[in-house]
Amino acid sequence: MKVYGGGLASATRALDGVSLTVAKGESVAIMGPSGSGKTTLLNCIATIDRPTSGEVVVDGTDVAHMRQRALADFRRTQLGFIFQDSNLLDTLTCRENIELPLTIARRKPSFIRERTEQVATSLNVSEVLDKYPYQVSGGQAQRIAACRAIVADPALVLADEPTGALDSKNSKVLLESFERLNRDYDTTILMVTHDAYAASYCHRVLFIRDGSLFTEVRRGDRDRQEFFAEVNRVISVMGGGDAR
Ligand SMILES: Nc1ncnc2c1ncn2[C@@H]1O[C@H](COP(=O)(O)OP(=O)(O)OP(=O)(O)O)[C@@H](O)[C@H]1O
């Protein structure tokens, strides 16, 4: 449970009774109307925020009750983040941005070089590695950010509206990259999105309404178009405004 604003009449119960398990190698989308608690849920899992009660267990560790210092280590080694705006450092080249988590972890230079080339190839950004973030397109910047998020092989990649700032063509390229990451590296991905098209690339979609799980749907063996139609059907049943 997550309550904002402690016990008074003005308190907001942002999450209530939400329980979910994400398997290693799974990709899961979280959808729901504005204000339903998606970002709160993602932030609790990301250890950016703490639940008022309950546990968040990642790879066997309860991160909701970890001390600050251990938490910083945990975030650095076990999580990868992708935001709506790529959040790249403009004073570093794209290559240096991707390398950052490995540089901080003091990995060997030869390993850093090799691993960076490897992820850049799989996300199709090898040709812009030596440019600065302001010299590349929005779609490329977002794929560079995705490279940075996965380069240190985190247990979990968390994405908040990763396609929010992209046009449909670049969204498709990014989502196909996620699919490939998931398939080739068994990367576990949890993304918050308003976009049924983005959600349809995942194995499973969770729908949240008023801080509780409304329902979930699994893609199974169906093709993406069929799953996309089902996600849209659930959105229309769920209602509640702008869950496009
Ligand atoms: N820091 C905060 N202090 C108080 N209330 C908050 C805080 N953050 C979020 N809330 C409230 O908690 C509820 C859930 O918010 P949250 O941001 O998780 O929703 P969301 O589903 O991500 O919405 P959106 O799609 O609009 O980003 C809302 O009622 C919101 O107003």
From TrEMBL:
Keyword annotations from UniProtKB, A to Z: ATP-binding, Nucleotide-binding, Transport
Alphabetical list of InterPro entries matching this protein: AAA+_ATPase (IPR003593), ABC_transporter-like_ATP-bd (IPR003439), MacB-like_ATP-bd (IPR017911), P-loop_NTPase (IPR027417)
Cellular component aspect of the GO annotation: membrane protein complex
Transport as UniProt keyword: yes
PROSITE patterns, per the entry: ABC_TRANSPORTER_2 (PS50893)
GO MF annotations, alphabetized: ATP binding; ATP hydrolysis activity; transmembrane transporter activity
Superkingdom, natural source: Bacteria
Domain ABC transporter: 1-235
Family to which this protein belongs: Belongs to the ABC transporter superfamily.
Full protein name: ABC transporter ATP-binding protein
